[in-house]
Amino acid sequence: MLSIASLALFLGTVAAAPAAVPSKPAATPDYNNLTVAIVRAEPVNWPMPIMNTNWTGRQFDLNATVTKGIRLIEEAASNGANLVVFPELWFPGYPQGMADRSSMGPWLSNYIENSLTLNSSHWTALVKAATDNNVYLSPAFSHREDGNIYMAQALIHPDGSTFVRHKLRPSGGERTLFSDGTTDDLKVIATPYGRWGILECWEHFHPSMTFNVQAQVETLHIAAWPYTPDAGDPLAQPFETLESNLAAARVYAISANSPVVFASVGNVRFLDAQGVDLAVVEAAVSTVEQPLAYHSFNTTGLAETEPYAPNDEQAWGTLQQIVQSFPAYIPRVKGSFVAKKLNPIAEMLAGEGH
């Protein structure tokens, strides 16, 4: 049963969410209807309001953020959600205003220490929250693995099975801090509700990330941005604006012919397959009073969707057309850009005198 705040959102209004009493959803969900809960609240110790970049006196706190995340999962489940989506790097928080190695400086060690590892107590708690509440969960987190940190997303199923991916190429200064993922992670996951794809932030601008995912035919796309201000925010840099990032999400929806979950701290959206807003909560709305946004849609028959479409814009044939028509005057030089870039933790800490 959706809360009053959830119903108000569906009707195009905004209301403060009442305190929710968590209760486990029905053991046998209706796969003909999916209710998505979109997290818009900030992680613990994250500076607010949205465009605040003052980290003085603040530390990243994975323990407290996982605890807060689980409360949000329980609240979402009690309001009937089947899928809960978190913003980019929500665990332990996106390093807003210092998302590069040099700017992280004094916070680098703290950030690495609070990056999540698989099979840790934090990860186990998130998996348990998905299974206990019978929901799909898409957390986004800084993933510490094999001596590096990665910008990660996951899809945790209600039965506890998981899919984890890394951002293929972190954007801008992020690539001096986080290591690259691999193209093996560009997958679409079959669920009883349909076929779900996952990407984050500026991956939505780049065909090297979007093409292979869209070729696998999504019926829902999960898009995680770290934070999003409202339109016209004078404090936002061009790459941070709602206008730029929402444009990417709208184009993605149209190109993939798939609805899109636009998750971020602040302004959140649910777009239909034509890129049109079906649900909106703006950043100006209190994240304390309304930490989650909701949208439900009909998923009847989507689980039977074919996993590829040979006569589509994103298909083997169109890929070959692109390759074969690549301008002849441009040298066939791979360059260094696509080579996998690693930023070993030991080297980063040594560079900061740790």
From TrEMBL:
Keywords: Hydrolase, Signal
One annotated GO molecular function: nitrilase activity
Assigned protein family: Belongs to the carbon-nitrogen hydrolase superfamily. Nitrilase family.
Domain CN hydrolase: 34-325
EC numbers: 3.5.5.1
Keyword Hydrolase in annotation: yes
Pfam families from the UniProt entry: CN_hydrolase
Signal peptide boundaries: 1-16
Designated name of the protein: nitrilase
UniProt xrefs under InterPro entries: C-N_Hydrolase (IPR003010), C-N_Hydrolase_sf (IPR036526), Nitrilases_CHs (IPR044149)
Presence of the UniProt keyword Heme in the record: no
Catalytic activity: a nitrile + 2 H2O = a carboxylate + NH4(+)
PROSITE patterns: CN_HYDROLASE (PS50263)
